[in-house]
Amino acid sequence: MRSSSSFAIPGRRLRAALVLALAAGLTTAVPAAQAETTAAPAAVTEAAATDLAAKPFMGWTSWTMQSSKYPGLNPNGDYSYLSEANVIKQTDAMAAKLKSYGYEYINIDAGWWMDWDWTPRFDEFGRQQADPVRFPSGMEAVADRIHSKGLKAGIYLPVGLQKEAYNNGDTPIWNAPGCTTGDIVHDDLRTTNGWDSSYKIDFSDPCGQKYIDSQAQMFADWGYDFLKLDGVGPGSFKSGDNYDNVADVAAWQQAIETAGRPIHLELSWSLAYANVDDWQQYSNGWRIDTDVECYCNTLVTWENSVDDRWDDTPAWTDHAGPGGWNDLDSLNVGNGEMDGLTKAERQSYATLWAIAKSPLYTGDDLTKLDSYGLSLLTNREVIAINQSSAPPAEPVTAGDPQQVWAAKNPDGTYTVALFNLSDAPAQVTADWGTLGLTGKASVRDVWNKENLGTYTDKITQALPAHGSRLFTITPRNASALAYTTIEAEASGNTLGGNASPADCSACSGGKKVGNLYVGGKLTVNNVTVAKAGTYQVKVTYVSGDARSALVSANGGGATSHKFPSTGDWGTVNTVHVPVKLKAGTNTITFDSGNGYAPDIDRIDVPK
After folding, report:
1. By C-alpha distance, which of 115, 136, 126, 88 is closest to 218?
2. 296-311 burial: b if 16+ Cβ within 10 Å, else e
3. How far apart, in whole angstroms, are the C-alpha atoms of residue 532 and residue 581?
4. Are strands 360-362 and 325-327 parallel, antiparallel or unpaired?
5. Mean pLDDT of 326-350
6. Which of 19, 226, 255, 497 could serve as 213's disulfide partner, Cβ 3.0–4.6 Å?
7. What confidence tens digit (pLDDT) does each residue in 538-582 have?
């Protein structure tokens, strides 16, 4: 799983340029003088804290246009779109076009303390200070301007102590007598974050927390409501102790709690799934993937990397909820040609973000939204799905080119999305069996705001390449399916190749069948059904990465199905695969073929 905006020169191909520049030693600008701010106010009230991230946030980010090579966006060199004038222009456009639909955050990303040549500025306490050319009025005045429109202001930092702020260890820490930058880092000056652009802070010295406190207090005093902390590990394509920033995130949470202002803490980028409990404990949101931007002559492309999210989101789904959300990165569907996507791709992009309960923040030029893009960003029914109390949707079918995702809503309805991720048109069927139902249900087309009528057992749609449909399904005289459960490790089953039972605390019965690789196979015997037909067989499995298996019945032709990652090898998940069974007794085989298949916990066959 893979990133957002970044301090420095992000992008999978461009980040290396920053690392080289930092290694060469960028010249630090002369710090702007700043009067010492007042002592920290009383701690944020518990009520205010619980309001943060009650729902996925909605807004705008500067990074998408900063990172693009689209003609005219960055006239003063790479990443130069970010300026006070452009932030105010987007603020005014959001207030006029999107505020009434729930969009409220204006998030200023990497570079606000950098000149056009990416040379940073710091105050006398080693804290980032606005570049006077990019932000001539200063960051507090910009936040005030954003607030004057009834919106909220967001700001950005890379994790750690930036190398240029170290200043031979002699820089004093604000409101911390006796503490200097030399006290807050490790003696060996080990580096951290996704670009090694900062020294790792040593929180065993209380001065480390004092430095984070000073930054949080500065942002609170300026009036910021949101902080994106970037390059955080474990994750960001780095591993090892140097890149474990859990202590930094915990320090930021503590600092925000005492700064006197509620501040939403968002983590970036491509955070490690193994630390999801830490991200939930200490932050309000976490990026689960790489940058959605393509760093090319459009804002994004489908292949680089919008389509990654269908593979990478499922493992994280169960971990999102009020207080903290899975962040799929910016939603860039509003500018037509500049987005770099077809209309079908734009709708699918918006559909997944909405049903996965990702924050909805666009990086588009809000002053140039086309009519189709505006309709995608302002569909109230789609926004309501994203902002509702229902859980995020997750795939109910295998991770094949044609997929169905669903979530059951508190009112008994279902949110159901059909996706055709192939490069050619295809039909996609939502079978009520994947919802655990049989019978009749009414269908509402959410994007088109149209009731389609009542369907029995399923609905099939012809979708264009990379296309989608989004429905609300309401059962009408439908009944719940009953299942026959068969454990993978049951003694009556047949194991082939290296396949073998293994302990699994998360699995039903405490066991699973693993080692399904290069010819390993599991055949589930004695699968009995009353009549012939295609059954949506529910497969509970474990897989630390996405893996495929060849599924067949009764020794017949096999179909390859991809099983999304469950995040690690101790977590189970469930998808449905269609299997054609005969009346009476059947066998169902899961064959690894020449590759690696997931471990199988059990199957549930509709009666």
Report:
1. 126
2. bebbbbbebbbbbbbb
3. 6
4. unpaired
5. 98
6. 255
7. 999 999 999 999 999 999 999 999 999 999 999 999 999 999 999
Half-sphere exposure of residue 33: CA atoms within 13 angstroms, side-chain side: 1
At 68, which amino acid appears? Answer: S
Q: How many Cα neighbours within 13 Å face the side chain of 217?
A: 20
> In this structure, what DSSP letter does residue 301 have?
B
Alpha-carbon dihedral sign for residues 317, 322, 323, 329:
positive
DSSP 423: S
Distances (CA, A) of 340 to 134, 298, 414, 496: 28, 5, 32, 47
One-letter amino acid at 136 equals: P
CA angle 255, 230, 352 (to 5 degrees): 115
Q: What is the pLDDT of residues 205-242, one digit of tens each?
A: 999 999 999 999 999 999 999 999 999 999 999 999 99
Q: Please give the distance of CA 148 from its chain centroid, rounded to a whole number.
A: 30
pLDDT in tens, 504-515: 999 999 999 999
Q: What pLDDT, on the 0 to 100 scale, is given for residue 51?
A: 82
Which tens digits make up the pLDDT trace of 397-446? 999 999 999 999 999 999 999 999 999 999 999 999 999 999 999 999 99
Strands (E), 109-250: 152-158, 161-162, 191-192, 198-199, 226-230
Amino acid symbol at 379: N
Q: Are 327 and 39 in contact (CB under 8 A)?
A: no
* Residue with token string 């000056």: 189
Q: What is the 3-state secondary structure (H, E, C) of 539-561?
A: EEEECCCCEEEEEEECCCCCEEE
**Nearest Cα residue to 271 out of 309, 245, 253, 299:** 245
* Structural domains present in the chain: 15-28+55-391 (3.20.20.70), 395-480 (2.60.40.1180), 483-606 (2.60.120.260)
Helix%, strand%, coil% for the chain, nearest 5:
25, 30, 45
Distance CA 553, CA 593 (A): 15
- Per residue in 507-536, pLDDT (tens digit) is 999 999 999 999 999 999 999 999 999 999
- Could you give the CA distance from residue 138 to residue 108 in angstroms, rounded to a whole number? 13
Q: How many CB atoms lie within 10 A of CB 127?
A: 23
- The whole-angstrom separation of Cα 363 and Cα 61 is 5
Q: Distance from CA of residue 350 to its chain's centroid? A: 13
66-76 burial code (b ≥16 CB/10 A, e <16): bbbebeebbee
